[in-house]
Amino acid sequence: MNALRAGLSCTTIEPGLNGGRLDGIGVYSQALLRHLPAAGCAVQPYSFGPAARLTVGRPLPLSFAAATLRDLAAPSAVRQKMGLDLYHATDYRIVRMDCPVVATLHDALPIAHPEWCSPKQRRLKNWLQIKAARKADHVIAVSQFAVAELVQCFGVDERRISVVHNGVDASWFTPPPAERRAATLAAHGLRPGYFLFVGTLQPRKNVERLLQAYLGLPPVLRAARQLVIVGAPGWRSEQLQARIAAAVQQGENVRWLDRLTGEEELRDLYAEAGALIYPSLYEGFGIPLLEAFASRLPVVASNTTSLPEVTLGAALEVDPLSVSAIGAAMLDIVRDEALRQRCIAAGERRALALTWAETARRTAAVYQSILLQ
């Protein structure tokens, strides 16, 4: 049986286009590129962008802007010829092709919650995103939570949606070398056992309330456990950055790491943390939860949007709008050893069920079902 020929959009993992930083969609795209071959797919990566700047994928026949304009102006025009069984768009850049197009729509944040997104050309971007979503022959949602939003905000027919959860690489279950972990902590001035947050600094990540909760903890606990915030500065994060800087100037045990050298450093930071605190207001999935679970790290997470679906009770859930609830959970997760061990064990079990290999297997099954229609 010949392998299924699948094109995969890899624009988000091109170092020449993303500045060397992978966002959640980039992590997802990279994971599929790695694991789909073992699921029976011959994967060909493609990217939008000038050929001279691409190192991962082949250039697509037209730029995204040109292909979008053609699709809008002449929907019945000859579609891009790909020579594939199907094409998988992972990053909302969806254009018509001469093969079935599968699109992963991670969430509907810009339309469902415009207040958490940059207003720059928002109306035009939202309109284009809705039009693009409707071009897909089939849609993959990364959580059951996202399905209702995709139907309501994008007008996607629910019968054309399959849910395939995100995952974590098997390598995360093996602790990094102790010497490397120690070197990473020394390089950043960290001590083991800190509270960890991972994610871009932007309003929906709710880091301001996390910072407030941390600063409200007993001084003896703050002295013993740092708050380590790992993430690039995002839209409307200036005030948060100023508050972090003010806390540091006042001698608080807060560290902000806005750039890491790669995944190895990130794994080291998870491995040496005391707990992941993830009070996000909105997530289509939340990959850091699985990374923490696989690293045997107890987790405090929001009880909203997709997060309870991802954790399935393996995390200590909190109301993300309550600073006092976040702070109380932080106290519990470090002081109650029995609770801590229950969370670690449940989290590891949950992560074992949600690996990227399983994501790829289920994604390949979606491909096959489309081709059989």
Description of the structure:
The protein folds into 2 domains: 4-167 and 356-371, Rossmann fold; 170-352, 3-Layer(aba) Sandwich (Rossmann fold). It is globular. The protein is an alpha/beta fold and 373 residues long. The protein contains 16 helices and 13 strands.
Which helices and strands appear, and what pairs or packs with what?
Layout: E1 4-9, H1 15-18, H2 24-35, E2 41-47, E3 58-59, H3 64-73, E4 86-89, E5 101-104, H4 109-112, H5 122-133, E6 138-141, H6 144-154, E7 161-163, H7 178-188, E8 195-198, H8 207-215, H9 219-224, E9 227-230, H10 238-249, E10 254-257, H11 263-272, E11 275-278, H12 287-294, E12 299-302, H13 307-311, E13 316-318, H14 323-335, H15 337-352, H16 356-371
Parallel strand pairs: 1-2, 1-4, 2-3, 4-5, 5-6, 6-7, 8-9, 8-11, 9-10, 11-12, 12-13
Instruction: Give unreliable regions as ranges.
Output: none
CATH structural fold name of the largest domain = Rossmann fold
**What is the mean predicted local confidence, pLDDT?**
94
Describe the global form.
globular
Q: Would you report the number of β strands?
A: 13
For this structure, what is the CATH homologous superfamily of the largest domain?
Glycogen Phosphorylase B
Number of helices: 16
Whole-number tally of structural domains = 2
Separation of termini? Answer: 19 Å
CA radius of gyration is 21 Å
CATH architecture call of the largest domain: 3-Layer(aba) Sandwich
Helix content: 40-55%
